[in-house]
Amino acid sequence: MIQEIASIHVREGQEALFEAGVVQAKPLFLRARGCHGMALHRSIEQPQRYTLVVDWETVENHMVDFRESTDFQEWRRLVAGFFVEPPQVHHEQKVI
Residue 72: which of 56, 85, 84 has the closest Cα? Predict the structure, then answer.
C-alpha cells in the first residue's frame, strides 16, 4: 500500500468551489483500480493550501491505471481551474 500525497494551492475565494469539485470527483478515485480511499485536508494557517491523500495498492495503479483513464480527465476538469499552480505530487510508503 502506498499513498499519493498532492499539495494543492487553490485561488483565494475559490476554496468552497474546489472542495465541492473534490466531493464530485471522489467516486472517480474510489472506482479506480487499486484505490483504497482518499481524503482532502485543508491547512489552518494557509486556507488556500490543501493536501490530497489517496491510498493506492501500487504506484502503477495511480500513475498508469488512473492517470491514463478518462476518470483522471474528469477529475482535472472538475478541479484544475481552481489551481494557482500544478499540484506537487509524490508517493510515500509506511516504513514503521
Answer: 56
pLDDT tens-digit series, residues 47-93? 999 999 999 999 999 999 999 999 999 999 999 999 999 999 999 99
Let me know: does 77 contact 6? Beta carbons within 8 Å: no
pLDDT in tens, 11-57: 999 999 999 999 999 999 999 999 999 999 999 999 999 999 999 99
Q: How far apart are CA 4 and CA 59, in angstroms?
A: 8
Q: Is the dihedral of CA 71, 72, 74, 75 positive or negative?
A: positive
For the chain, give the secondary structure using H, E and C: CEEEEEEEEECCCCHHHHHHHHHHHHHHHHCCCCEEEEEEEECCCCCCEEEEEEEECCHHHHHHHHCCCHHHHHHHHHHHHHECCCCEEEEECCCC
Cα–Cα distance for residue pair 26/74, rounded to 1 Å: 11
